[in-house]
Write the structure tokens for this entry.
Amino acid sequence: MNKLAKFQKRLAKEYPSFKVEAKDDCLVLTGEANAYMDKVRAGQMAAKTHYFYGIINDIKLKGYKEKPIKAPSIKDKSLDGLKVDVLVVGGGVVGCAILRELSKYDCSALLVEKEEDLAMGASSRNDGCVHVGIDLHKGSKKLKYLIRARAFYEQMCKDLDVPYHQDGQSVGFTNAWLRLPVGIFMRHQAKANRVPGGAIVMGRKKFMKIEPRLADDIKFGVYLPGGACTSPYELTVALGESAVKNGARVSLSTIVESMKVENRKVVSVATNRGTIFPKVVINAAGTYSDVVADMMGDRFFSIHPRKGTDSILDKAAEPHLSKTSTTVYPKLGEYAKTHSKGGAVMPTAERNALVGPDAVEVPDREDYSTARESVNAVFAKQQHIIRGLSQRDIITYFSGVRAATYEEDFVVQKGKWTSNAIEASGIQSPGLTAAPAIAQDVAKWAGEMLGLAKKKNWDPIRKGPIRTRELSDKERDELIKKNPAYGHIVCRCEEISEGEIVDAIHSLIPPTTVDGVKRRARAGMGRCQGGFCQPLVVSIMAREEKRDLLSIAKKGEGKLFFRHTKEDR
Ligand SMILES: Cc1cc2nc3c(=O)[nH]c(=O)nc-3n(C[C@H](O)[C@H](O)[C@H](O)COP(=O)(O)OP(=O)(O)OC[C@H]3O[C@@H](n4cnc5c(N)ncnc54)[C@H](O)[C@@H]3O)c2cc1C
């Protein structure tokens, strides 16, 4: 019996209504599922065969119609007829890191992002951990790129003037008898995966010095001093700004709608702002990367979106804060089975505590809804490790969606069938960590395809915004003397001045919404979540951009802040 027939037999046993065939090196699944998880499990079964190049899962869910992609309403011809050397689709951390690498070459590079700002997908909806990769599989692209990126991540954050805190990561265990096997396993993994700083196994007493609020049932722990964190949206915007500073272009509110492919080559790309003619197309479209791959004539993988929900705690909850990114594994088996790291309690780059995420398979690629059950589940688990962790301290929670492939690895390669396509697709966790190294390879391939030379005057430095709360009294006084706007505090929770908001509004890739200002200047990120400062931010935006107050939205194209009163009408 051949490999396909063997798998067909196995699948028919579990899911008789699903069909599978081999097409162009890939396994293609079709049929109708009663439950969404049946579709996901069939895809996972197919991936486990390792017989085929990729898995295309076209199983439909009974009674479910896939939600259309969230698209900008704007339609103009501002990009019509534009010829570029390289087009990057997607303005997350991967697309922006690629654009920055491309800006090292003598070429015209354009990034298009369908949302009104960068970092609107997974790249602003994650934990911000710069992982050590102890859990990653040998031979995976995840591990390859993580190891490479870790070698220069800290320096890159310095060059881009974004936060980088090496707090370390810890794993606590509740079963004392596991100490010996865990020690052997973790030390072996740390060596094999070249974990910076290695893995240090320690008894409760020593572990308490690292994590003073350890719960009573933690018997021992593993400390990974190389773990770090950054601000994911600040990093993404900084990568984009660095690229723009070096000559690349970014077009926001620009959605790729279709592509014309001739003789296995993308010849043109249709967007809501006209048709672009690129020589090379790079797919960095996150949860839509299989859809964009299909447009490029290069589909050989499928994304099954996996949602995660995180809670952010008030800074006043500091006594509860874990000092490192800390998680608990009551059983060793759990560690090996899960596709996510299982959530943790960790300090963010802004020194709040973050609790989460969980991992839930969802059919919708942009399902950012938050469920109480997710928050409860993560807190219930993490309460086993940090004493006094309380949901009362939550100031906000959010969800992000991981772009998981059935193979559970990144798709980073030149197009399989399309000669001028490059895939930087299916970048789930640890994509924030791996992105800068993925970008190096992708830009190198684009450079080779086009015979590009490197620029001599490329500048790695991007100066970040002034953060008055980080200045000494003397420095602040001097700044306020020069510009009193830095002395006018607009966001009281985060101590953000009007001067910082004005700087954000006039930054290299200017925000168009209040949330865009929030991502750059942190106004509205604190305890009151903008209740006090957002109307002030709106009025500063209206003044600086000479815009009608009534046209300014919180995010996207909806949710305006102010409306006409009855008297105005
Ligand atoms: C809850 C959660 C926690 C995580 N925690 C970590 C962590 O701690 N550390 C870590 O290393 N990784 C983490 N990750 C993973 C990390 O966030 C992702 O790997 C990374 O952000 C992926 O970046 P991206 O650029 O590929 O995707 P995205 O950020 O999703 O960007 C893709 C972009 O493409 C755009 N797009 C899609 N289709 C089109 C189109 N047709 N035209 C134009 N634009 C389009 C989208 O709007 C989107 O902005 C986490 C992920 C989640 C969800």
Notes: The CA atoms of residues 109 and 313 lie 40 Å apart.
